[in-house]
Design goal:
The chain is built from no helices and eleven strands. By secondary structure, the chain is mainly β.
Length: about 110
């Protein structure tokens, strides 16, 4: 089992930026696809972005061109750079690796 700890969430104005981090314990990080999901109040959890062990990426249409997923296997850490944030990006963001989930970090976009 992998322990995942997200950080970097917070309150930001529309148009602003945040960078989320997901730190993983153990030595399996580099072997697995990592993903970011989000869940807004009253909505189902949805996929935001995915990065394979080899670095291939995929984004939800709603964030394409604004968000960038990356990973640093030497640091066992994944990232989600979020630019041009919109109020509809407000949600709890979770990282996922194999079958494990982090506790989530709140992102609120509001003026």
């Amino acid at each position: 089992q992998v322990q995942l700890v997200e950080s970097g969430g917070g309150l930001v104005q529309p148009g602003g930026s945040l960078r989320l981090s997901c730190a993983a314990s153990g030595s399996i990080f580099s072997a697995y696809t990592m993903a970011w999901y989000r869940q807004a109040p009253g909505k189902q959890r949805e996929l935001v972005a995915v990065i394979s062990s080899g670095g291939s990426t995929h984004y939800a249409n709603s964030v394409k061109g604004r968000f960038t997923i990356s990973r640093d296997n030497a640091k066992n850490t994944g990232y989600l750079q979020m630019n041009s944030l919109k109020p509809e990006d407000t949600a709890v963001y979770y990282c996922n690796l194999a079958s494990d989930w982090g506790q989530g970090t709140q992102v609120t976009v509001s003026s």
